[in-house]
Amino acid sequence: MPDPETTGQRQTGPRRLPPWLAPAVAPLPLAPLQPMLALLLARIGQAHPDLYGRLGEHAQKRFGIDPTDLPFAFVLEPKPQRPRARAVRALPGDLDACIRGPLSGLIGMAEGTLDGDALFFSRVLWVEGDVAAVLALRNAIDDARIDFGALLLGGLGPMGERAAAALRERMQPRTAPAGDRPWN
Amino acid sequence: MQLTLGPVFYHWAPERWRDFHYRIADEAPVDTVVVGEVVCSKRAPFKQDHVAGVVERLEGAGKRVLHASLILVSLPRERRQTRELMQLGEDEGEPAIEINDLTCLASLDRKPFAVGPFVNVYNEAAAGFLASRGARRICLPPELPLTAVAGIAAALPDVAIEVFAFGRIPLAISARCYHARAHKLTKDNCRFVCEQDPDGMPVKTLDEAGFLSVNGVQTLSQNCTSLLRDIPVLRRSGVASLRLSPQDCDMVEVARLYRDVADGRLDGAEAESRLAELYPEVPLANGFLHAVPGHLRVGAGA
Amino acid sequence: MELICPAGTPASLEAAVEAGADAIYCGFRDETNARNFPGLNFSRDEMRRGIALAHRHGVKVLVAINTFARAGNLALWQAAIDDAVASGADALILADLATLDYAARRHPAQRLHVSVQAGAANPDAIRFYAEAFGAQRVVLPRVLNVMEIASIVRESACETEVFIFGGLCVMEEGRCSLSSYATGQSPNMHGVCSPASHVAYGERDGRIVSTLGGFTINSFGKDEPAGYPTLCKGRFSTPKGAGYTFEEPLSLDAAVMLPALRKAGVTALKIEGRQRGRAYIAQVVRSYRQILAALDDGRETAPAGLAAMAEGQASTVGAYRKGWR
Predict the structure, then answer these.
(1) Closest by alpha carbon to B175, among C264, C231, C324, C95?
(2) In order of start, what are the domains of chain B with their CATH numbers?
(3) Do C277 and A145 touch (CB under 8 A)?
(4) CATH superfamily label, A28-144
(5) CB count in 10 Å sphere of residue B184
(6) Which one, A46, B137, C73, C94, has the greatest CB density within 10 A?
């Protein structure tokens, strides 16, 4: 079979969190995270009401979001009447769909600075379960243009702004020369 | 209910192609036979010398003959062949040509014509447009569900509506030749390797489940359409004709089964079990008609 | 040459405007358009606002209504046409004889483009669409090489638009039922190909296995680049061996063909990807804007460097070069 002509650069994906971070935060209790998540979700709902129109039937589904470089994960239920998000040590088995990947990749996709399909093609992100629900969620969030840094850190004044800028900088993709294609 | 034998999609040896049609002429209870190379223009010269003899034999046996056009027309040679084909006259107001691409409409000049299953007729308005240009018969695309078939037939009582009722389902056409690709050849230097697979080259999934079938630039299904059990509902829906697409099996016997069921001499389920013996090891399917995945076989419509 | 860019959401439309699109194509949120994916496309209100925003920046909007109308339910497609015209669409992209005929009769002043889904692959077919419906542009199927495109341009009064980047159909568009054979959902009828709702990923013997409608489409080792389980880009088994029977999971990137396409007289260059995020839109459109600027200045056109955006992270010039077939 003819070899395709490969061009350009290969993306190695977003930066991963430093390896010391996961063990360092592992013993911390998750309880303080829960009100922060609830606040974040409430702010997103207020700022982006169109999001539910795009999610359609998929708003009723339960999503697992698993940052592979953190010792905990999130369960998201975007139901318009009563949206819920909570942090868990391990994802439950009855989710409709699950997205796994490094935290910066997940946030970069959610913020629209990274392309979800590109992250998927490069195996940085992985999807299990109801792929249509994940696509709907991705597309709805991509259209909403959510600035997670500003939403989360917005209450902290100039210090929060700097932290948000630093977060965004972290999430810029890096590129490396294309390697041999190990398949086919 | 009429029966139409569709064009042979495969690259059969010229003598085999000729003898196949001779036997159809002599023995098969079909009303119409479609001849010509529709898949690959490179194959056309091989059977060219036999076309006249085949047509004569078929017409001598009282069968109507339609000359089919290519599915995908892109090269200058293919355009020329298509234009020449459109110069064929009409036969006492009945079509002599079956078009498989809208390219043909540019040079048809309002003669009556038949429409093959490769023209996208998904609704009554598209069918009506073609009828206004001279379409007398339309074989609908195989993926159409019964609701659409019935809707189109009801809207156009003067056009003979036909459905794809037997054979591996033609699913796609490409500029790229997958037979050549599998044999690590280029299309321009293909050595006609497709001739080695008179019933298509099987394409299985990586876990060896039957799936598709390659015929040069064409991709067909692994499973074979059987609408034998659906004939009553097709008749009630206003379908005028059933298309039988030649496979590497006894097509005369296949035609007899369809004829017997259409004439009420044989039960559809009984006929289908005989069909499975005539064309063994190929699963039967009718999913498209029932608006489910095309590879599935579901109970006949009420 | 005009740069025609995709938008699956209003945010992507804005991203395309900012990145330098000459025109943007998009569709309504239903089965009237061929990218009817979950969470994508425009409500009537979003379409009106999107077109207004684009027009304020001097950017055109082409509305794709390029599936084939369902028998007995033409009204949905006719309403899409009427609403697109009322919203100020600069052109409608249509594929079905039914929608073309309706638009040409009902809105004779409206500019019509023949969708790639119509599979108009030669000057005679194009002449038919121009004469029958007054079509002013045809989007060429991805089965033609540059010489064939040049001869189409020479012989046709119609403008031509060709794909230069993104997902690549290896089958002739508009005449492919592979997806509905496996899933019951087809590009022509439902506006989807290999739909996500029928995709599943699982693990077997340490490899990731993708299935579509229950059929195994591919299997990847841990570090292999992945492709979306599109049927024609899966790995299958034939008597001649296992592999990518139809095409590898790669994308079209015809950046190096731009000088030849311009010489051929092509009017417009199209980027595929209404289903992609706005990060893709921004990066691909900006990149091609730069290549076109370089071309206008008579400078070398560098490769786009967009492999990261590509399926399987690799690209091909597809049928534009003859050996592809």
Answers:
(1) C324
(2) 2-169+223-282 (3.20.20.70)
(3) no
(4) SCP2 sterol-binding domain (3.30.1050.10)
(5) 11
(6) C94
Of the candidates A11, A58, A145, the beta carbon closest to that of C11 is on A145
Instruction: Verify whether the Cβ–Cβ distance C200 to A131 is below 8 Å.
Output: yes
Q: Are A104 and A17 in contact (CB under 8 A)?
A: yes
Q: Look up the domain containing C69 and give its range.
A: 2-168+250-324
Domain membership flag for residue C224:
yes
Low-confidence ranges of chain C (pLDDT < 50): none
How many Å lie between the alpha carbon of C286 and the closest alpha carbon of chain B? Answer: 31
Residue matched to tokens 């290999």:
C194
Q: What percent of chain B has pLDDT over 70?
A: 99
A4 vs C: CB within 8 A: yes
What value, to the nearest 5°, has the Cα angle with vertex B237 and ends B231 and B239? 65
Query: Which residues of chain C from 155 to 214 reach within 8 Å of chain A, CB to CB?
Result: 195-197, 199-201, 208
CA of B298 vs chain C CAs: smallest distance (Å): 13
- Chain A residues whose CB is inside 8 A of the C310 CB are 121
CB contact under 8 Å between C72 and B123, yes or no, is: yes
Residue B27: CB atoms within 10 A of its CB come to 14
Q: Do A126 and C253 touch (CB under 8 A)?
A: no
Q: C310 and A121: CB-CB below 8 Å? A: yes
Residues in CB range of C46: below 8 A, 6 or more apart = C10
Task: Quick: pLDDT tens for C85-117.
Answer: 999 999 999 999 999 999 999 999 999 999 999
State the chains in contact with A (3 or more Cβ–Cβ pairs under 8 Å): C
Of the residues C243, C266, C283, which one is the last residue of a structural domain? C243
Q: Tell me: do C63 and C207 sit in the same domain.
A: no
Q: Is residue C138 part of a domain?
A: yes
Note whether residue C108 is domain-resident. Answer: yes
Residue to mutate among C14, C30, C40, with most A CBs inside 10 A, is: C40
Using the 3D structure, point to which of C243, C261, C282 is the last residue of a domain. Answer: C243
Residue C173 lies in a domain: no
Query: Does the predicted model carry a pTM greater than 0.90?
Result: yes
Indicate the length of chain C as a whole number.
325
The predicted structure's pLDDT at residue A182: 28
Size of interface B-C (CB pairs under 8 A): 214
Residues C51 and C131 in one domain: yes
B177 touches chain C (CB under 8 A): yes
Cβ neighbours for A136, distance < 8 A, ≥ 6 positions apart: A54, A55, A56, A58, C38, C39
Same domain for C110 and C41: yes
Whether residue C123 sits in one domain with residue C147: yes
Asked if the Cβ–Cβ distance from B101 to C125 is below 8 Å, we say yes
**C164 and C44 fall within a common domain:** yes
On whether both C164 and C185 belong to a single domain, the answer is no
Chains contacting chain C through 3 or more C-beta pairs under 8 A? A, B
| Residues B225-281: tens digit of each pLDDT | 999 999 999 999 999 999 999 999 999 999 999 999 999 999 999 999 999 999 999
| A8 pLDDT above the threshold of 70 | no
- Residue C10: which CATH number? 3.20.20.70
Q: What residues have CB less than 8 Å from B283, skipping those under 6 apart?
A: B210, B222, B223, B224, B295, B297
Which chain B residue has its CA at the smallest distance from C184's CA?
B293
Can you tell me the distance from the alpha carbon of A162 to that of C234, in angstroms, rounded to the nearest whole number? 46
- ipTM value: 0.96
- Higher-confidence position of C87 and A49: C87
Q: Which of A18-22, A137-141, A176-180 has the lowest mean pLDDT?
A: A176-180
Report the half-sphere exposure of A140 (CA within 13 A, side-chain side). Answer: 23
Q: Judge if C50 and C88 occupy the same domain.
A: yes
CB contact under 8 A, A6 and C308: no
- Cβ separation C325–B105 shorter than 8 A: no
Give the closest of C248, C256, C313 to A10, CB-based.
C313
What is the overall mean pLDDT for chain B? Answer: 96
- The tokens describing C30, both together, are 């239903």
Contact A115 C309 (CB under 8 A): yes
Say whether both C48 and C92 belong to one domain. Answer: yes
